[in-house]
Structures are given as C-alpha cells and as structure tokens.
C-alpha cells in the first residue's frame, strides 16, 4: 500500500527559513554582542521550541519526518545564504561551499537537529492524545 501522506512543504520551508535568524544574527554581530556561546544556544533552543510547538499544535502528521526535513531545509538555506552573502560582505566565497565535507557536515548536523526536535514533538503529540 502506497503512503499517500503529502508533506506540508510550505510549512517545512517556512520553519527552515525561520531558523535563518541564527546565522543572520551572527552575520550582523548580534550574537557576539549578546555573548557567545550562550546567545547561539538560546536562539537554537527558541527555534527548536517554535518548531515543536508548530507541529504539535497544528497536529502535523509525521512530526518526526516533517522536522527532519525542516532541519535539512534549514541546512540548505544556510549554505545558500552563506554562498550569497559571504562574497558581498567579505569579497570572497567563504563557508560550507568552499569544502564539500563542510556541506555534508552542515546537512547532517541540521538533519540531526530536526530529528531530535521531531522525536520530542512526536512524544508530545502522543502525550496529548492520551
């Protein structure tokens, strides 16, 4: 039997884009002004809580898959924004696209982030159904 569940791609793209607040804050120097590494950790936790809240409260089917894809989407967006903005800001390409292993690392790291958020969201959804 074929799985006919359609992924909420617009939601996945929107949540992935939301996470761009972290690298944008970094590029603008805001995270440094707030204080590292605390600022990065707090922003990551807030983004994660938003992702989890959205999928739990909208009752997204397959929250684990949706948040896994959200993490990967964010990774792709972060790589692209780095490729676009680093030449503008520094005059040369910097970031993951300069090293193929870095691209893989960014995607895997953010997939794991999404997977962990998805596990928490799945647990919360099950708890709400009890």
Automatic annotation (TrEMBL):
Taxonomy, superkingdom: Bacteria
TM helices/strands, residue ranges: 36-57, 64-89, 101-124
Keywords tagged on the record: Membrane, Transmembrane, Transmembrane helix
Official protein name in the record: Phage holin family protein
Higher taxonomy: Bacteria, Bacillati, Bacillota, Bacilli, Bacillales
């Amino acid at each position: 039997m074929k799985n006919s569940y359609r992924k909420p791609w617009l939601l996945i793209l929107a949540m992935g884009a939301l996470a761009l607040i972290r690298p944008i804050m970094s590029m603008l120097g805001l995270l440094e002004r707030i204080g590292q590494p605390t600022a990065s950790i707090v922003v990551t936790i807030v983004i994660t809580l938003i992702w989890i809240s959205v999928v739990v409260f909208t009752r997204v089917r397959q929250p684990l898959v949706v948040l896994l894809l959200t993490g990967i989407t964010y990774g792709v967006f972060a790589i692209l924004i780095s490729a676009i903005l680093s030449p503008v800001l520094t005059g040369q390409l910097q970031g993951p696209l300069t090293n193929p292993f870095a691209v893989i690392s960014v995607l895997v790291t953010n997939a794991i982030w999404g997977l962990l958020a998805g596990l928490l969201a799945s647990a919360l959804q099950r708890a709400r159904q009890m």
